[in-house]
């Protein structure tokens, strides 16, 4: 993973010429005043952990699995939000952990937590490092140091239960690794977020991830039927049946807990048969409102597609819905729906027919397979473009929310208005990214010319958008999580008593407060 950006540096994306023109002419983007820092120019604080603590950690995991070198520290600094990337591009690694520890088993995780609690060392569980909400940037004050607990060595498929259709997998598995292992058994998880190439199963559970095929396979939190969690107070094994009436479901305490309550060391996940057929296609609607009404009907009237998304007029025109066509002159008009169907041939045929009848009735025009296939080809390429846009002098970031269908038009307008108010004349694109019977998620992409202080520029825009979301009845996050960036809005969303419940759980499981301090838990 590129330390200051996204993905494999060999796959860096050039900005197409029409996009460069669009940036200059429409948004007034100019090259940044200073070039991005090189790896050698990154400024790191001295490592703070006492040698005795490092030695004790090494005694648990083996010396080669405790790293305090610059390379390891820089690569475990923060996550991959645009502010995170802007700081790294400026050579600022002031949030670097003092050491990176790579445990090889659940027992080693338990022992590392015990040691860190004893020495008051903060522990940041680290999966793929793709958090976009400050979930990997703990508060350091009051701690003897910070350790990034990289779960990458916990990367096994432990077992498959083909009768129950579940699999036990370790949290450090990246999504493609997990899919490869399951493919050996003819199975799939069906979880394909845009961060698919790098994010891990543990991170998906800890941040309640949602993938591009969630309409069909469900969100990641729907897939978790059991888990093992290491906490400073000991181990929890949760989930002995698919559903239970034995009190509140403790799985829900750890789903979305972002490393603040414990470290997930194993997951029992629902799996599906690998689909025999995949068919993606495009539909066009005249307006976003008409497309929204059609998606709502699809979500409410049964048998929805596996992938279902609707781009608004701006996103469709710019071509972001089909990244391979980005900026193509004379781009599409109207609003593009991508519908993808995966499964057994009969099931796919039935759902396609049902969807087609409904979409035609709702005013949709069938565009054939091409837009859907192009979307599928380019589905993981947008994060690479972000690096090129930042280098060209644009500020580009995404934000997401969800609400009930009845509130959706108001929420859409409110967020767009807030972003325009905060940024002048940005390009604001949006798509409905996930649908449910009762509501949907809106995903916004914003591009604007960088000011001299792009961090402050984005902070103001993000604040305005957050206030608009709260005011219009949306949640501060549908799938990115809380981290530190959404803490204030989350505190308002759950209220004082909600915050107290979280603090109560935290105090019981983590009395020394070493787990990801400053993340998730509202403090009054
Ligand atoms: C370009 C890009 C695209 C993205 N697209 C999507 C998307 O489509 N859908 C989506 O849902 N999200 C998306 N994200 C956000 C991010 O990928 C998800 O939040 C993902 O779930 C994080 O997984 P990770 O393994 O990288 O976790 P990390 O970023 O390493 O960690 C995330 C949080 O979980 C905690 N954590 C990690 N592992 C564990 C564990 N084993 N036990 C306890 N706590 C743990 C961490 O401490 C941190 O607070 C995107 C991010 C980027 C940068």
UniProtKB/TrEMBL annotation:
Alphabetical GO biological process terms? lipid biosynthetic process
UniProt GO molecular function: alkylglycerone-phosphate synthase activity; FAD binding; oxidoreductase activity
Q: Which domain of life is it from?
A: Bacteria
- Which residues bind substrate per the record? 386
- Entry annotation: catalytic residues: 443
What Gene3D superfamilies does UniProt report for this protein, alphabetically? 3.30.300.330, 3.30.465.10, 3.30.70.3450, Uridine Diphospho-n-acetylenolpyruvylglucosamine Reductase, domain 2, Vanillyl-alcohol Oxidase, Chain A, domain 4
Domain named FAD-binding PCMH-type: residues: 93-274
Site annotation (Important for enzyme activity) points to 309
One of the Pfam families matching this protein, by short name: FAD_binding_4
Q: Which UniProt keywords apply?
A: FAD, Flavoprotein, Oxidoreductase
Residues that, per the record, bind FAD = 125-131, 258-264
Which cofactors are reported in the record for this sequence? FAD
- Name the SUPFAM superfamilies for this protein: FAD-binding/transporter-associated domain-like, FAD-linked oxidases, C-terminal domain
PANTHER family in the cross-refs: ALKYLDIHYDROXYACETONEPHOSPHATE SYNTHASE, PEROXISOMAL (PTHR46568:SF1)
Which family is annotated?
Belongs to the FAD-binding oxidoreductase/transferase type 4 family.
Record-given protein name: FAD-binding oxidoreductase
- Which organism encodes this protein? Microbispora triticiradicis
């Amino acid at each position: 993973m590129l330390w200051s950006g996204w993905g494999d540096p060999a796959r860096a994306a050039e900005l197409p010429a029409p996009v460069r023109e669009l940036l200059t002419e429409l948004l007034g983007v100019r090259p940044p005043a200073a070039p991005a820092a090189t790896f050698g120019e990154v400024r790191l604080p001295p490592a703070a952990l006492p040698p005795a603590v490092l030695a004790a950690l090494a005694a648990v995991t083996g010396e080669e699995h405790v790293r305090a070198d610059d390379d390891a520290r820089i690569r475990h600094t923060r996550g991959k939000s645009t502010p995170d990337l802007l700081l790294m591009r400026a050579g600022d690694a002031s949030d670097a952990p003092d050491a990176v520890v790579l445990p090889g088993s659940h027992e080693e995780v338990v022992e590392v937590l015990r040691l860190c609690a004893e020495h008051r060392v903060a522990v940041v569980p680290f999966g793929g490092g793709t958090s976009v909400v400050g979930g990997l940037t703990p508060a350091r004050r009051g701690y003897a140091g910070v350790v990034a607990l990289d779960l990458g060595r916990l990367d096994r498929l432990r077992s498959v239960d083909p009768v129950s259709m579940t699999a036990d997998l370790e949290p450090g598995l990246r999504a493609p690794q997990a899919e490869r292992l399951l493919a050996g058994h003819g199975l799939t998880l069906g979880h394909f977020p845009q961060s698919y190439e790098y994010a891990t199963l543990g991170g998906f559970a800890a941040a309640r991830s949602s993938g591009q095929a969630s309409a069909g396979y469900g969100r990641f939190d729907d897939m978790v039927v059991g888990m093992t969690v290491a906490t400073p107070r000991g181990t929890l094994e949760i989930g002995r049946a698919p559903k239970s009436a034995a009190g509140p479901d403790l799985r829900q305490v750890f789903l979305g807990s972002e490393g603040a309550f414990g470290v997930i060391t194993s997951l029992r996940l629902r799996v599906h048969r690998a689909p025999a057929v995949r068919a993606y296609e495009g539909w066009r609607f005249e307006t976003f409102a008409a497309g929204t009404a059609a998606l709502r009907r699809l979500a409410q009237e049964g048998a929805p597609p596996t992938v279902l998304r609707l781009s608004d007029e701006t996103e469709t025109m710019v071509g972001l819905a089909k990244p391979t066509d980005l900026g193509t002159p004379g781009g599409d008009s109207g609003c593009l729906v991508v519908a993808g169907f995966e499964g057994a041939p009969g099931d796919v045929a039935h759902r396609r027919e049902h969807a087609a009848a409904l979409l035609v009735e709702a005013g949709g025009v069938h565009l054939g397979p091409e837009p859907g296939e192009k979307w599928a080809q380019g589905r993981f390429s947008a994060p690479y473009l972000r690096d090129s846009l930042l280098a060209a002098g644009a500020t580009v970031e995404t934000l997401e929310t969800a609400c009930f269908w009845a509130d959706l038009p108001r929420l859409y307008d409110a967020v767009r208005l807030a972003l325009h108010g905060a940024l002048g004349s940005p390009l604001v694109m949006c798509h409905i990214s996930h649908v449910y019977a009762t509501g949907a998620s809106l995903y916004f992409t914003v591009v604007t010319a960088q000011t001299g202080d792009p961090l402050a520029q984005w902070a103001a825009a993000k604040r305005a958008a957050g206030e608009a979301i709260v005011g219009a009845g949306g949640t501060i996050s549908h799938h990115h999580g809380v981290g530190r960036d959404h803490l204030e809005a989350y505190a308002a969303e759950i209220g004082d008593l909600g915050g107290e419940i979280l603090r109560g759980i935290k105090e019981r499981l983590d009395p020394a407060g070493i787990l990801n301090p400053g993340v998730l838990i509202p403090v009054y």
